[in-house]
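Annex B. Sample input.
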Amino acid sequence: MENKKLNIPVMADLHARNEKPEYLFWVGCAGAYDDRYKKVVQAFAKILSHLNISYAVLGKEESCTGDPARRAGNEMLYQMQALQNIEILGMYEIKKIITICPHCYNIFKNEYPDLGGNYEVISYVELLDNMIKAGRLKIDISKFDDVRITFHDPCYFGRANNIYEEPREILKSITSNMIEMERNRSFALCCGAGGAQMFKEAEEGDKEVFIERTEEALNTDAGIIATSCPFCMTMMTDGLKYKNKEEEIKNYDIAELIALSLGL
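Annex B, continued. Sample output.
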C-alpha cells in the first residue's frame, strides 16, 4: 500500500536502505481492498505517524493470513498461505506485528506459532489505549462529547482474546456519553460475518444475525455505532441501510474516531 500524502513506509524500501522498523503494520485484506475499510487504514496510519512510531507495511508482498480458508475448513490452503507469510516475515526479521483486524490478530497470535511463526502481536486497540494512558494521545473530548456512542464487541477481540476493556477505555476518552447494548462483552452477539460466514449465503431462519445485532444497537438511541473489525463494520453498515438509518446514525471504527478527535 502506497500513499504519498500519508507517506506510509514499505518494508522492502526500508530493507533496501538497511533500515529496520520496530513494527510491521499488517493491513489485512479488507484494509487493502475494501473502499470503506481503506479509510480506517488511513486513519490509523495517520495516528502512527502522529505518534512517530517506527513502522512499515508489506505492500504488495502482503497476502491473506489464511483465516477465512481455515474457518471454512480448507486446512491445506490455510497452511500454504500461512507458511508463505511466515517465510516473508522471516526474510525481514519481523518480531512485532500491529493488526487492525481481530481475525488477523487472533491467527497470528494463537495459530501461527504451531507452524513456527512466533511474533509479538499487538492489536491496534491495545496500542491506542496504551498511548492515551501514557499521555501521548491527547484527545479533544469536545468533538464527540454530545454524541451518544455504543460499541459492538468483535468476537475475535472479545471472546477469543479477552480484549474487552481497551476499546471501552478509548471510547470513554472520546465521549462521556457511551452506552452499552443489552448484550455486551462476553455476551455480545456476533455480527454474523465471522467464521467465514461473510462469504456464504445466509442459512434458513427467521432473521439474519446482523439485523438482530443492528436492532440492539438502535435500541440504545446512539448516534454512532463504534466498531473495531472490518467484518463487523460491513455488517453494521448493511444493518443501518436495511433499517433506513444510514443518514442519521453513523458507523465509525475506533481509529477513525481517534483521528477525528485529534483533527488528523
